[in-house]
């Protein structure tokens, strides 16, 4: 009311231009947004309790509960199967949480389920079984040789090759290959037959189903090293069954490429199957084991 009276008293003393300036000045002074800047941002606070839990948590089992975002601000797209499998876990009431988790906890942790009857198996036996599983169920592998090519002579050279250790119902543990002399890898092997074969679990369902990267230690990988040799005549028929039963397309490959069979005489075995480093498996234990992913 006092402002209006002031405006009436001053109206007679000021020009129209000055009057307009006065009105604009009053509008700015009376505006509730004067002096503020609107910033569009998202923020959150971390309580002392969470900081203490993060500092004291030493195992990976405790991390998912602390890293989950319950605000539903951030969302990512995952396969529908992941949400379906986690549905039952999320529907269970958990003390201290009033909102449903929006992202699958398996991104941070996954525990392999034990198989009945395997409680008495030693860790070394389990490692041997897993190694045989990877050799048998992988349809391809990464073979590394010592290059004989002019520009990279003596440098490690890798190539992806189809592989089989036998028909699906007959695992031998011995990798067989169907190769051509026109391949640089074979040229390398003719000069130095020592090679390294890596067989990743990434090809199977486990890593894809649980959204685990191939380099993650939970996504197992097997490395075999040894001598690459030509399959002798007495094993030729089995080599054909091993390769053609698993890779039927090979039968139609052009014959002018002079395809022939090779196999690896395994000398050393390394397995990365979980956190904690690489396991060394004895060759005799490897061949005695029955293929199993546990």
Automatic annotation (TrEMBL):
Residue ranges of every copy of the CREG-like beta-barrel domain listed in the record: 124-288
Subcellular location: Secreted
Residue ranges crossing the lipid bilayer per the database entry: 19-39
InterPro entries xref list: CREG, CREG_beta-barrel, Split_barrel_FMN-bd
Pfam families, sorted: CREG_beta-barrel
GO cellular component: endoplasmic reticulum; extracellular space; Golgi apparatus
Keyword list, A-Z: Glycoprotein, Membrane, Secreted, Signal, Transmembrane, Transmembrane helix
Highest taxon of the lineage: Eukaryota
Xref: SUPFAM superfamilies: FMN-binding split barrel (SSF50475)
Family that this chain belongs to: Belongs to the CREG family.
Protein known as: Cellular repressor of E1A stimulateds 2
Lineage, opening ranks: Eukaryota, Metazoa, Chordata, Craniata, Vertebrata
Gene: CREG2
């Amino acid at each position: 009311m006092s402002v209006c009276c002031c405006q009436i008293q001053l109206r007679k003393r000021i020009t129209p231009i000055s009057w307009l300036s006065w009105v604009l000045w009053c509008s700015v002074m009376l505006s509730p947004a004067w002096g503020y800047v609107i910033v569009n941002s998202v923020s959150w606070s971390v309580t002392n309790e969470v900081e203490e839990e993060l500092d004291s948590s030493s195992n990976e089992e405790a991390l998912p509960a602390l890293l989950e975002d319950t605000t539903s601000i951030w969302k990512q797209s995952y396969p529908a199967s992941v949400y379906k499998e986690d549905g039952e876990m999320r529907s269970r009431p958990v003390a201290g949480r009033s909102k449903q988790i929006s992202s699958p906890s398996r991104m941070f942790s996954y525990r392999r389920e034990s198989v009945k009857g395997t409680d008495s198996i030693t860790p070394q036996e389990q490692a041997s079984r897993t190694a045989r599983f990877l050799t048998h169920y992988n349809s391809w592998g990464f073979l590394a040789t010592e290059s004989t090519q002019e520009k990279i002579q003596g440098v490690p050279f890798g190539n992806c090759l189809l592989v089989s250790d036998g028909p699906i119902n007959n695992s031998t543990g011995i990798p067989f290959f169907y190769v051509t002399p026109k391949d640089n890898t074979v040229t390398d092997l003719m000069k130095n037959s020592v090679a390294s074969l890596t067989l990743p679990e990434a090809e199977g369902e486990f890593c894809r189903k649980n959204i685990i990267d191939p380099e993650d230690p939970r996504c197992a990988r097997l490395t075999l090293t040894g001598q690459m040799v030509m399959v002798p005549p007495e094993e030729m028929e089995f080599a054909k069954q091993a390769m053609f039963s698993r890779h039927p397309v090979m039968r139609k490959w052009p014959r002018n490429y002079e395809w022939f069979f090779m196999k690896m005489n395994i000398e050393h075995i390394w397995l990365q199957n979980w956190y904690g480093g690489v396991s060394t498996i004895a060759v005799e234990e490897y061949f005695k084991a029955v293929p199993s992913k546990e």
